[in-house]
Write a structure and sequence with these properties.
Layout: E1 2-5, H1 13-26, E2 30-33, H2 46-59, E3 62-64, E4 72-76, E5 84-88, H3 95-106, E6 113-119, H4 129-142, E7 147-153, E8 162-168, E9 178-179, E10 185-195, H5 199-213, E11 220-225, E12 232-241, E13 245-251, H6 258-275, H7 281-294, E14 296-301, H8 306-318, E15 322-329, E16 332-338
Parallel strand pairs: 1-2, 5-6, 9-14, 10-11
Antiparallel strand pairs: 2-4, 3-4, 6-8, 7-8, 10-12, 12-13, 14-16, 15-16
Length: 339
């Protein structure tokens, strides 16, 4: 049994999710201790418990310590089974983080899987659905997988109520990719989504984006949603290049101005542009596990985050790979994943 210290490095929920996924993928039982030890509310919250329950469901496994607030968990997988699954977080907890736990393991299933998850679809601290659809899944397709994620209904913090559906085809073997250049930019645009809030919030966000990014009005889109989706607001910047698409998001919060929400997304996008890296820090996190499963791969990114290095350490505990990061310039790093 592999023992994972959940307080290491970044000390958050990603350690749990990566450990569960790799436990299933390698068919090795795991015990995770000190779960989310560095968070304000340590232990399993609703979305983390749902991720555990999802891992148990798809693998026919067993889990000890699977309860709210638990700070230790023992998980033993069995055989991955494809099929139709539905998981309800019950809060605005992130649907995409629950999916992240089981997506790659379901590639090993004997048949297609359909996974429906309800909860939050656009949450601070989690990849929004737009990011999965536009940035991550196209790269996973290049690696040989066929995965489609459909957004059925937006769900914002704190109300939740969103829904996504993922269809995952079996793909027992992934191939590595080399992603060191982003290529020429083909298109860039911003979208301001709002539900049950005044339209001027979206207008102010897009005005700020236009000024900071020097984008034209025909690159700025207001996306009004029905009141049943809210209240909620996000502003999303999409940068499409020849080799990769990146998505940067600012999340509306009570007491935070529209201008600040937009500036947060713009600052991330401008940092990415200035770095000349192929992928940003969040996409680097997402790529790490599939490349490790493929056994090889390479990409450039800005300076690695603590989240990234923590995730890499967990990957190396389960798989016979090494994650090597070399600095190429002030804010350009090359990551090599290999056996």
């Amino acid at each position: 049994m592999i023992i994972i210290d959940g307080s290491q490095g970044e000390g958050g929920g990603q350690i749990l999710r990566t450990s569960l996924a790799l436990s299933i993928l390698t068919n090795q039982p795991v015990r995770i201790e000190h779960i989310r030890a560095k968070r304000a509310k340590p232990g399993l919250l609703r979305q983390h418990l749902t991720a555990v329950q999802a891992a148990v469901a798809i693998s026919g496994g067993q889990a000890k310590g699977a309860e709210l607030g638990s700070r230790a968990l023992t998980f033993s997988p069995s055989t991955v089974q494809g099929g139709d699954y539905r998981f309800a977080i019950g809060t605005a907890g992130s649907c995409t983080l629950v999916l992240q736990t089981i997506l790659l393991p379901l590639l090993l299933a004997d048949r297609e899987s359909t996974v429906t998850i309800t909860g939050g679809t656009h949450n601070p601290g989690a990849p929004p659905v737009d990011f999965l659809q536009r940035a991550f899944l196209p790269l996973l397709t290049r690696m040989g997988a066929t995965v489609e994620v459909t957004l059925k209904k937006h769900g914002f913090f704190p109300s939740g109520g969103g829904e996504i559906v993922a269809r995952i085809q079996p793909c027992p073997t992934l191939k590595g990719i080399d992603l060191c250049e982003r290529g020429e930019r083909r298109r860039s645009f911003a979208e301001a989504y709002f539900a049950n809030l005044p339209v001027h919030i979206a207008e102010r966000e897009l005005k700020t984006v236009g000024e900071l990014m020097n984008w034209r009005k025909d690159q700025l889109f207001i996306r009004g949603l029905s009141g049943a989706h809210g209240p909620g607001n996000v502003v999303s910047l999409t940068l499409e290049h020849e080799q990769v698409t990146e998505v940067f998001t600012g999340f509306g919060e009570r007491g935070v101005s529209a201008e600040t929400v937009a500036k947060t997304a713009c600052d991330e996008a401008l940092d990415y542009i200035a770095s000349n890296a192929a992928v940003g820090p969040h996409l680097a996190d997402q790529l790490l596990l599939p490349l490790a499963l493929a056994g090889s791969g390479r990409f450039t990114m800005p300076a690695p985050t603590l989240h990234f290095t923590t995730n890499a350490a967990v990957v190396e505990r389960f798989l016979p790979v090494r994650v090597r990061v070399d600095q190429r310039s002030d804010n350009l790093y090359e990551t090599l994943v290999g056996r």
